[in-house]
Specification:
The chain is mostly helical and 981 residues long. Helices cover 62% and strands 6% of the residues.
């Protein structure tokens, strides 16, 4: 597999496994497009600036461009994929990776095949090329009112040519079925393009619709005369003459077909005997419903199904094929499509039975009735059909054994319903559709069906609605969850009301409340299909689905669902398994479940009628809050430190066996924690406890964006609820987040507000910590006298309270302060903190002390000693340790290695820091790493890259609030810029 880039629609990137990479910003899409328009060539920086900012880029454009390039490199996740190449950047694109190049190659292939009359090759090249289109090329990158760029116009014209060639090839190959609606839509969209009119006339005529073919000609002629004053061209005139002179029956025969076929064996017995025999036999059953008028995509799956149905297991046993999936995903359409494609392989008949497993208001068909119907259709006298199911099933197997017959068993409820209907001979094949994968059906080949791709969804929507490309179609596809049933509903609504635009309909679907109301039309209903599945659930599974709607989480696991259901985890897991079995949930990884978006809407509707939904939400909040508190207990040393940072017991949750287990649980559940806090922070005190419990985990992981979001939500909610203690905790957390982000001024303001509240509440321990934080922040801002005063007050308070751990932390802060005037004294202070860490068995004190001692040795010009202490700190931290100390120790190690001349190791550490800081949105650490990397590459003679790195670092630090004033002065000097006085 290889990476894929897309411009035939909104700009897109898929990794080697086929997963889409998110391009969340307009600037990222513009940058990627500018590079893809000139693949494997250098795109100058000025052109990239123009692509991102137009003719008047801001003064910071150069640094901002570098940041965007860095983010794009990280997105592409290949070191040599996007590289600097003076005077700009070069994006490496391998053959077959860029959809516009692949499309144009298919155009060339189709053109050559068209010229030599190889119609099968034309059809295949056109299919492959057209399948690449996901919408309008470069969608979202230009204003349609100002006209499309030349490239877009050229690609659109090539697409229209491919469509023309494709339908010419299909006509030559005699494949007319299903082309009429698609050509009708094209004729409506391109009313002056004569080729589509000609092809529509021929398709209509050759499928027995001569009058409609003549009407199509008259419509085209009228349009051309009224608008252009001309008649249709020679090709259309020739098609018109064919319609007039060729009988419909003859026109409908595939190319090369004989006028009549002689029955096999007629020569042996004579024509009269053959005719008599034919008259005496009933015709073989041909019960398949009509093939879907619009069947888009799933070509690979169709090929796999055909192969599975054509294979003989070699043991004389028929292998059923089960197509499964959620309501409305297109199971029946796929089964009927593949059955029609295989009709010729099963000359003894094609049987179809609707087992009514999910038909609204109807009981599933029992096997006995199904057997009677099948045997009757095979010519068995109904009086000869046994009353016992086993005997009737044996008769069915005997009747089918010598034949080649295809059975389609649609909408099965269970394996027990299907099992008696299966033939045993090797000449028969069975296609079963069901919402369940029917895992109890031994030996079946299973094909789970997912929603359509975005591109195929758009094609289906346009084909059914008769609309062309228009604003809002892509949004409409996503609001429908790419579910074929939902797409057909909105397509029917668009077809019925020409004044209704896709954009307006997408707006109606944007609101979750009432979305399912918009997905009902005539006899098509998403809600109705889901209701059938719900009505067939056992009580536990129905309760689980209803409670999923009460609390909307990105993913669900059995422990959380057990709290929602107010039951044990075993019963919750069984209920989830049942929901998976009927395709109301998807198990995305072991024990993790996700509903389709429209199933979420249905579950919310069910929850609205549930009187226990508020209590269910509170139960799951309590469990998540206590489990998150247990992470903090696993990460923090026992004693006062855990008591200060964590709330008291909130509920019941199993303690974690190790810090690693705790961090792994936090990583898995973080999206759910954020969703709960965003939803309930303003109305639940438990949600505020969840925020407070989560700070230690988020700090350890360095998740600064999440800390910011949660802190702001908690502060607003605490003030709204009038909870002053919760307000002080939120202010303290926001102070910590801003300190970690390099915004010392803001951190100081939040800390001061928190200290004021703690004084009002009389909480001496938290006052002491607030004073220590004040001293640390003032030191970082260069306000050394104020810092010393605050730290001495904090130290006295810690000793009065007997807080040995707090005293060691303040000694660490005092050491950092002393480093500005007496680095040897600073080392002595840090060594006292280190000794306290050993005595108290506090890993955080020890690793922090080693890190701080390393910086003091750097100040003294002793990089070898500094490197040794940084190594000690990093060894204690490990890869999963506290991000702040880990990053500070590593950037200090880079400085030491650079001064020691160990550039290669320094480069490796810099690259690791940039990667990890980027994943945590830590712009401060990214800036520090770019400063050091700039010094490294400058020493190697690469001044251009050094300047880019320094400009990017300076731009990031200028967005902070003064903590790095000295470093910003150094960067300005390196860049030759004036330093503010």
């Amino acid at each position: 597999m290889r990476m894929r880039f897309g411009l035939l629609g909104p700009p897109a990137v898929h990794d080697a496994s086929g997963e889409p990479r998110p391009l969340n910003s307009a600037k990222a899409r513009a940058l990627l497009t500018a590079l893809l328009l000139r693949p494997n060539r250098v795109v100058p920086v000025d052109e990239l600036k123009a692509a991102l900012w137009g003719d008047e880029p801001p003064a910071s454009a150069h640094a901002s461009l570098h940041n965007h390039v860095t983010r794009l490199r990280r997105l592409l996740a290949e070191n040599d994929r996007l590289r600097a190449a003076p005077p700009g950047y070069l994006l490496r694109v391998e053959p077959g990776e860029l959809d516009t190049e692949v499309f144009e190659e298919q155009v060339r292939t189709a053109r050559a095949a068209y010229a030599r009359g190889d119609w099968a090759a034309v059809a295949e090249a056109a299919r492959l090329g057209l399948a690449l289109w996901r919408g309008s090329p470069l969608a979202g990158l230009y204003d349609p009112d100002e006209g499309a760029p030349a490239l877009v116009q050229r690609l659109r014209e090539s697409r229209l040519l491919m469509l023309e060639w494709r339908y010419d090839a299909e006509l030559q190959l005699g494949r007319h079925d299903g082309a009429g609606p698609e050509l009708a839509a094209l004729v409506a969209e391109f009313s002056l393009r004569e080729a589509f009119h000609r092809q529509l006339m021929l398709v209509l005529h050759r499928t027995g619709r001569q009058a409609e073919a003549l009407a199509a000609y008259q419509s085209l002629r009228r349009t051309l005369v009224e608008e252009l004053g001309v008649d249709p061209g020679p090709a259309v005139q020739e098609a018109y003459q064919e319609v007039l002179r060729t009988p419909t029956a003859a026109a409908a025969r595939p190319a090369g077909a004989a006028a009549a076929a002689v029955p096999a064996g007629a020569a042996a017995t004579g024509p009269a005997a053959a005719a008599a025999s034919a008259e005496s036999r009933p015709p073989p059953p041909a019960q398949l419903p009509p093939a879907p008028a619009h069947f888009i995509g799933r070509e690979d799956l169709l090929a796999e199904l055909r192969a599975a149905l054509a294979l003989d297991g070699g043991d004389g046993v028929s292998r059923p094929v089960v197509v499964s999936g959620m309501a409305g995903v297109g199971k029946s359409a796929l089964a009927v499509r593949v059955a029609h494609a295989l009709r010729d392989d099963f000359p003894d008949g094609q049987l179809y039975v609707n087992l009514r497993g999910a038909t609204p208001g109807v009981t599933p068909l029992d096997p006995g009735h199904a057997l009677c119907a099948l045997l009757r259709d095979l010519g068995v006298d109904p009086r000869q059909v046994p009353g016992e199911v086993d005997a009737a099933a044996a008769l069915l197997r005997s009747t089918l054994a010598p034949t080649r017959t295809l059975l389609v068993l649609d909408d099965a409820a269970s394996a027990a319903q299907v099992r008696p209907l299966l033939p045993a001979g090797p000449g028969c094949a069975v296609v079963v559709t069901s919402r369940s994968p029917l895992t109890a059906l031994d030996g079946a080949a299973r094909f789970p069906l997912a929603p359509l791709s975005a591109a195929d969804s758009g094609m289906l929507l346009r084909a059914v609605s008769g609309r062309g490309f228009e604003e809002g179609l892509e949004r409409l596809v996503e609001r429908c969850g790419r579910l074929p049933l939902a797409l057909r509903v909105v397509a029917a609504r668009l077809a019925a009301r020409r004044a209704l635009t896709a954009d307006v309909l997408a707006g109606l679907l944007d609101a979750q409340a009432g979305r399912l109301d918009q997905l009902d039309y005539d006899d098509l209903s998403v809600r109705g299909s889901l209701a059938v599945a719900h009505d067939g659930l056992d009580p536990d599974a129905a309760l689980a689905l209803r409670r999923l709607g009460a609390v909307d989480l990105p993913e669900y696991g059995a422990p959380a669902v057990a709290r929602l259901m107010d039951t044990d985890e075993r019963r919750a897991a069984a209920a989830l398994d049942r929901l998976v079995d009927v395709a109301l949930l998807e198990e995305v990884s072991y024990g993790r479940f996700v509903p389709h978006d429209l199933v979420r809407d249905f579950a919310r509707e069910l929850a609205e009628r549930d009187d226990d939904r508020q209590q269910a939400a509170e139960r799951v909040l309590v469990w998540y809050a206590e489990a998150t508190r247990q992470i903090g207990i696993a990460l923090l040393p026992p004693g006062q430190e855990a008591g200060l940072r964590l709330p008291g017991p909130i509920g019941e949750a199993v303690p974690f066996g190790s810090a690693e287990q705790a961090l792994a649980w936090g990583d898995l559940e973080l999206p759910n924690l954020l969703a709960l806090i965003e939803r309930y922070a303003s109305e639940s005190a438990t949600a505020l406890l969840l925020v407070r419990a989560g700070f230690t985990y988020l700090q350890r992981r360095g998740r600064l964006q999440e800390l910011a979001v949660m802190g702001e939500l908690a502060l607003d909610a605490a003030r709204k609820l009038g909870d002053t203690a919760a307000e002080a905790h939120a202010l303290t957390d926001l102070a910590g987040m801003n300190f970690l982000s390099g915004r010392a001024e803001r951190a100081l303001a939040f800390n001061e507000s928190a200290v004021m509240i703690w004084r009002t509440l009389g909480d001496d321990r938290r006052i002491q910590r607030g004073l220590g934080n004040r001293g640390m922040l003032l030191e970082g801002l260069g306000r050394y006298e104020e810092a010393a005063e605050a730290l001495e007050s904090a130290l006295a308070c810690a000793r009065r309270l007997g807080d040995a751990h707090g005293e060691a932390i303040i000694l660490s802060h005092l050491g950092n302060l002393l480093e500005h005037t007496d680095a040897r004294a600073a080392i002595a202070c840090h060594e006292r903190s280190l000794a306290a860490g050993v005595r108290l068995n506090s890993e955080i004190l020890r690793l922090t002390a080693h890190c701080n001692i390393g910086y003091a040795h750097l100040t003294l010009g002793e990089p070898a000693e500094a490197a040794r202490h940084f190594d000690e700190s990093l060894a204690l931290i490990g890869d999963d340790g506290d991000w702040h100390t880990q990053s500070q120790a590593r950037i200090g190690r880079v400085r030491a290695l650079r001064e020691l001349g160990r550039a290669e190791e320094a480069h490796r550490d810099c690259a690791l820091l940039l990667e990890r800081a980027g994943s945590r949105a830590d712009t401060q650490m990214q800036a520090l790493a770019r400063h050091q990397r700039g010094l490294l590459v400058h020493a190697e003679g690469d001044e251009d890259e050094a300047r880019e790195l320094w400009e990017s670092a300076l731009s990031a630090l200028e967005a902070l609030d003064g903590k790095h004033a000295a470093l910003m002065g150094e960067l300005r000097e390196l860049l030759g810029r004036p330093v503010p006085g």
